[in-house]
Amino acid sequence: MKLVVNGKSFEVAVPTDTPLLWVLREEVGLTGTKFGCGKALCGACTVHVDGQPRRSCVTAVGDVADRPITTIEGLATEAVLHPVQAAWIEENVPQCGYCQAGQIMSAVALLRAKPRPSDAEIDDAMSANLCRCGTYPRIRRAVHRAAALLNGAGPEGATPAAPATPAAPATPVTPVTPATPAMGAKP
Ligand code: FES
Questions:
Q1: How many angstroms separate the CA atoms of 174 and 187, rounded?
Q2: Is 135 touching ligand 1 by the criterion CB < 6 Å?
Q3: Between helices 119-126 and 100-113, what is the axis angle to 10°?
Q4: C-alpha angle with apex 50: 78 to 6, nearest 5 degrees?
Q5: Which of 42, 47, 87, 114 is close enough to 36 for a disulfide, judged by CB 3.0 to 4.6 Å?
Q6: What are the phi and psi torsion angles at 145 (to 5°)?
Q7: How far, in Å, is the centroid of ligand 1 from the Cα of 62?
Q8: Sign (positive or negative) of CA dihedral 39, 95, 115, 24
Q9: Per-domain residue ranges for the chain?
Q10: Can you tell me whether residue 165 is helix, strand or coil?
Q11: What confidence tens digit (pLDDT) does each residue in 150-172 have?
Q12: Whole-angstrom Cα distance, residue 92 to residue 108?
């Protein structure tokens, strides 16, 4: 069967009920997508199918043949990170990192649907992606930062740099007058 992953076609010979996750990792060789729970409960295996987030551990590969699949490896170009990845780095989000590919894929889908999500919308959309390291506050900040990047602004809350103040003209230095020796003082 033919799979279209990150814009490239792959011919794979596997039973149609094989989980997409294992086909991506073992047949296509893309190991950025992680196995977490195997029951669609933790989100570590999140990829996009037709632009929508899907848990690849419970998606039969036969259901997604010929449909566009995007994995974490497909977000960046060779030269430029996806804004969500850039925001993740700027906010230092990962701790152990195991859940983060899934977190980023969910965040990309969220920002596509809601370009400027509120805290509540972020928490709601990301709540099914579990992080055992507890990076949730940094994830929230990074989603806001990514939203700002995607909307062409600087990070929210950032203060624009003040225009440089021209330096004051230097005050000429008054030549030091040698002290006049006091009357009667010895040189
Ligand atoms: Fe360790 Fe999320 S960073 S599980």
A1: 25
A2: yes
A3: 130
A4: 25
A5: 42
A6: -65, -45
A7: 30
A8: negative
A9: 1-74, 77-155
A10: coil
A11: 998 654 433 333 333 333 444 44
A12: 17
Q: What is the pLDDT of residues 48-89, one digit of tens each?
A: 999 999 999 999 999 999 999 999 999 999 899 999 999 999
Give the class (CATH, top level) of 1-74.
alpha beta
Percentage of the chain modeled with pLDDT above 90:
80
The residue whose C-alpha atom lies closest to atom 1 belonging to ligand 1 is 96
**If you write DSSP's letter for every residue of 24-50 in order, what string do you get?**
IIIII----S--S-SSSSS-TTEEEET
- Give the pLDDT score at 155: 44
Indicate the helix (H) or strand (E) that contains 5: strand 2-5
Q: Is the shortest distance between the CB of 98 and ligand 1 below 6 Å? A: yes
pTM value?
Answer: 0.81
- Judge: domain 77-155, CATH 3.10.20.30: no
Report residue 114 CA to chain centroid gap. 16
